Structure prediction request, 98 residues.
Amino acid sequence: MVFERVAEEVESQVNGTVDDSAVDLLRPLDHRARRVLGLFSKQDFIKSSDVARLLGISSRQARDLLTGWVVQGWLEVVDPSRRGRKYGLASKYKGLIL
Prediction:
């Protein structure tokens, strides 16, 4: 199943066809946000420690980025606890993940 979706994506890239809605969703995301988006291909939820490790930044910087991304609307707070806060993708972005 996943392999077929990857094959379709590769074929669309080779043929030059790109889903305009996907481009419109990705355009406002900066390079850090796009890297973090890749985490969701392996897991359903992320924590600030995941982002800090991926980007090589402090936990505080990761929390600030995550808060901003929630405001932008591409992330949602899934578990609002103070110590173990988890974030998930907003529903319109879930279709971008293979």
